[in-house]
Amino acid sequence: MAKLDLIGLVVKDIVASLNFYRLLGLEIPTEAGSEGHVEVTLPGGLRLAWDTLDVILSFNDEWETPVGHRMGMAFLCDSPAEVDKLYEDVVAAGYESHKPPWDAFWGQRYAQVKDPDGNIVDLFASNAQ
Questions:
Q1: Are 91 and 112 within 8 A, CB to CB?
Q2: Distance between CA atoms of 116 and 39, rounded to whole angstroms?
Q3: CA-only gyration radius of the chain, Å
């Protein structure tokens, strides 16, 4: 049986993308990024990787930039206040807001920001305290 082992992101600017995801709490070595491919192992063993377009085109010359949002990532925060603070920190660092924090009808504090490639990334926490 196959096991999901790695989720890969194709990025235009690997340094900007790595800095964005570091801001969200991912532990990515600061020297990473100059070689065009970076991967980190997340808690639980799943790997997350970033590849520049040049790297992808080196083995897949038919790759095309996707249109629309096909996949999303969500980062669980410890509290609703952390959602608000993380959102403010990301926007203050120059990254784009998609939707400011709000209390979602399903019982979570939620916000959405865009990574440097325009992917929408969710920040959320339970409103139940």
A1: no
A2: 17
A3: 16
Give the E-state strand segments of 1-129 in sequence order.
6-11, 37-41, 47-52, 73-76, 96-103, 108-114, 120-126
Q: What is the pTM of this model?
A: 0.87
Tokens of 67: 């249109």
Backbone angle region of 111, left / alpha / beta, with phi > 0 → left and psi within -120 to 50 → alpha: beta
pLDDT tens, residue by residue, 34-79? 788 999 999 999 999 999 999 999 999 898 887 777 778 999 999 9
Whole-number Å distance between alpha carbons of 100 and 28 = 26
